[in-house]
Amino acid sequence: MFNIALPKGRLADKTCKLLKQIGINTDEVTSDSRQLVIKDEKTGIQYFLVKPSDVAIYVEYGVADIGVVGKDILLESNPDVYELLDLQLGKCKVVVAGREDFYEDKERPLRVATKFVNIAKDYYASINREIEIIKLNGSIELAPILNMSDVIVDLVETGTTLKENKLKVLTEIIPISARLIANKAKYKFKEAEINELVAKLSEVV
């Protein structure tokens, strides 16, 4: 019936719990198997377990009919897909953070370390602030600690990591949660089935 792209890890587990609530058996997906492609013969649903940042690509190219992806990834990569439903899972936020003693020098471009280059550019463009982007892929918090950047733009869930590294949230840019997305062409062919799934999920979200 469907090819579903799921992000590996906790978000896949949480999504599977939601699917179980609407009567879809996901036991094979939540088992300890290391399989990346899992087919449920009874339902005809095939699951692909992929890197979270790749879910939207599998859906955009039609390998998967639908998928579950963080809003941060949709904002950053802007894939050509339909966003169908906020699943209210994996809630966090994209923020600007800096050192506890941060002072902004408005006479020069702000140095911003982030892996969310487009989100950062869009945000600072919206407030007319000139910036210099430093693209990093991990341990973003190190950049202001080592004076490589003035601030960071990053995902924050509890803020514990920031506090432990003597950083603080300066501005909240946007709340983030997991979204159900669909391939545009596949949606036309399976509109009734996908809409029925969305309706059922809406009742339990």
Explain this structure.
By secondary structure, this protein is α/β, with parallel strands linked by helices. The chain has helices at 10-21, 27-30, 55-60, 71-77, 117-126, 142-145, 160-164, 184-189, 191-204; strands at 3-7, 37-40, 45-50, 66-70, 82-86, 92-99, 110-114, 131-135, 151-156, 167-176, 178-182. The model has no long low-confidence stretch (mean pLDDT 94). It is built from nine helices and eleven strands. Helix content is 33%, strand content 31%. The strands form two sheets. It has a six-stranded mixed sheet. Strands 8-7-9-6-10 form a five-stranded mixed sheet. The two termini are 22 Å apart. A hairpin with a 4-residue loop joins strand 2 and strand 3.
In short:
The protein has 205 residues and is an alpha/beta fold. It has helices at residues 10-21, 27-30, 55-60, 71-77, 117-126, 142-145, 160-164, 184-189, 191-204, and strands at 3-7, 37-40, 45-50, 66-70, 82-86, 92-99, 110-114, 131-135, 151-156, 167-176, 178-182.
Secondary structure layout:
Blueprint: E1 3-7, H1 10-21, H2 27-30, E2 37-40, E3 45-50, H3 55-60, E4 66-70, H4 71-77, E5 82-86, E6 92-99, E7 110-114, H5 117-126, E8 131-135, H6 142-145, E9 151-156, H7 160-164, E10 167-176, E11 178-182, H8 184-189, H9 191-204
Parallel strand pairs: 1-3, 1-4, 7-8, 7-9
Antiparallel strand pairs: 2-3, 4-11, 5-11, 6-9, 6-10
What is the first-to-last residue Cα distance? 22 Å
The proportion of strand residues reads 25-35%
Largest sheet: 6 strands, mixed
Following the backbone from N to C, one meets helices and strands in this order, namely EHHEEHEHEEEHEHEHEEHH
Helix content: 25-40%
